[in-house]
Amino acid sequence: MKSFKTLLAAAALAALSVLAFTGCSTTSSDVSENSIFSMESQPIYQLPHDHRFHRGDTYIHNDYQEWQYFTVLGRDKITGDEVSIFICPFHQGWVESHEGRSNLFHYAFTNLATEEFHGAFTIFEGEYTGVAGDPYKEDFFFEYHISGNTGEMNIHYDYATETWRYFGSSDIVNDYNTAYDFDISWTVEAPGYTPGAYHGLENIGWDAKGAGYRHNPETMAGLSRYIQVPRGVIVNGSFTVDGREYDIEGDVWYEHQWGNFRNVQAGNYFWGYMRMEDGTAFTWRQYYIGEGWDTYDTGMTRFQVIRPDNSVEYAFGPSFTYTPTEIWTSPKSGKTYPWNGVMESPLGTFYFDTPLKEQETMSAVGEAYIEGYGQIRTGGPDGPIVGKGFVEMVDMDPEVYPFQDLPEEEIFMDFSKINR
Fold first, then answer.
1. Strands 18-20 and 244-260, how do they pair?
2. Cβ distance 232 to 186 under 8 Å?
3. Which of 123, 242, 280, 351 could tie 276 with a disulfide, CB 3.0–4.6 Å?
4. Is 11 exposed, middle or buried (0-12, 13-18, 19+ CB in 10 A)?
């Protein structure tokens, strides 16, 4: 078994203690009679248990949200075209009619060689079905399936080989949907699974049961968990979109978030990751206060770097800032996006842009947003490209976004203060 399956990642906590991930939970047969003190790092996640979708009384709330997604930066082995892919099963809320979640699916596909973008947002009625093995054993696995008049979606995970497989199809075609048929599998590489934020949590939001911010880790009220895989590799990459068949190879970035929380921060945010030529990777999330992209909220900013030796470092607050130098307005939706700008980071100064701005897809609340390829340069906006990655940009209509009538001090939280 790979070494990172028993010690998958470490992250600095507020008190500089160590957070460790465990592959299988300890059973009584593993405990020595002489082990009267706990010497192991204490996990806040249980892997592989938490790879499964989360159900039960704790998550029967309209605040429940869970999504896992992966992106691919790679190329078509048939033509050599450079491509990016985004695959995202999404679960949200509680639907009384079928006593289950609202089950959504997003994808985004960019061919940089032909400057094509395709995306889709589909809703599956009903609930996922499937089977799973014993998560305490080495042969643990699970698989999910859901289908309907929108098509189908399937997910399979194998713990012994750390292999994920996603496959599905849909024939819906409209302004924001292109028919798709894909079957992609990939394997996890070191450093394995890491926390998405330095304290292991993200999106600490508003508790709907009372004013202000009240949180409960037993019910996940106002909280979410967030893990990611900074490095994965494609095993099989079959993707058919707009009638063209692709055979994809490339690198994977995976994230999984779940909890009972509402995002009460400003609707505008900029998330992304970059893979640099020297083997370094980094990821960030930058929230903006109010409408537009003028004022960022340092208290909600996070930054993470994954070194070539697989060590992971975290930063927050003003350590990372993104200042737009050009705001692009979509002719399709009228939304604005900061497609050109300057990144100030612990790794230095970079200049962000993209060769293809029109990479919009549809969201769960009927709002267009960006899921697409981006890149960074050094030395200036026309300097050499030193990193390639994937980004998400959201320009949310304040009338659609919840809780905008709350006082500003109740909407914006300062992570740099409350999580130290």
1. unpaired
2. yes
3. 280
4. buried
The C-alpha atoms of residue 237 and residue 356 are separated, in whole angstroms, by 23
Picking from 401, 399, 397, 377, the residue whose alpha carbon sits closest to that of residue 389 is 377
Neighbours of 143 (CB within 10 A): 16
Q: Which CATH class is domain 265-420?
A: mainly beta
CA dist list (Å): 328 to 341, 354, 376, 390: 11, 11, 17, 17
The CA distance from 420 to 416, in Å, is 7
Q: What is the pLDDT of residue 102?
A: 82
- Cα dihedral angle (195, 200, 205, 211), rounded to 10 degrees? 170
Enumerate the β-bridge partners of residue 106.
Answer: 88, 121
For position 25, what pLDDT does the model report?
A: 37
Q: In order along the chain (420 residues), what is the average pLDDT of each group of 10 residues? A: 33 26 38 57 78 86 86 98 96 74 90 96 87 94 91 96 96 88 97 77 54 66 86 97 96 92 68 96 88 80 92 87 95 94 96 97 80 98 98 79 48 35
- Rounded (5°) CA angle 155-109-104: 45
Maximum separation of any 2 CA atoms in the chain, in Å: 69
Amino acid found at 413:
M
Q: Which residues pair with 315 in a beta bridge?
A: 303
* 47-262 fold: AttH-like fold (2.40.370)
- Which residue type does 52 have? R
Pair of tokens at residue 21: 């991930």
d(CA 125, CA 143): 18
Q: Would you say 180 and 241 are in contact if contact means Cβ atoms under 8 Å apart?
A: yes
Q: What's the pTM?
A: 0.86
130-133-135 Cα angle (round to 5) = 120
E strands, 150-301, where? 151-158, 163-170, 180-188, 194-195, 223-241, 244-260, 269-276, 281-287
Q: Do domains 47-262 and 265-420 have the same CATH topology?
A: yes
CB 64 within 8 A of CB 85: no
Residues contacting residue 393 through CB under 8 Å, at least 6 positions apart: 269, 270, 271, 337, 338, 339, 369, 370
Q: Which residue has the tokens 């050094």?
A: 378
Going from N- to C-terminal start, the domains of the chain cover 47-262, 265-420
Residue type, 57: D
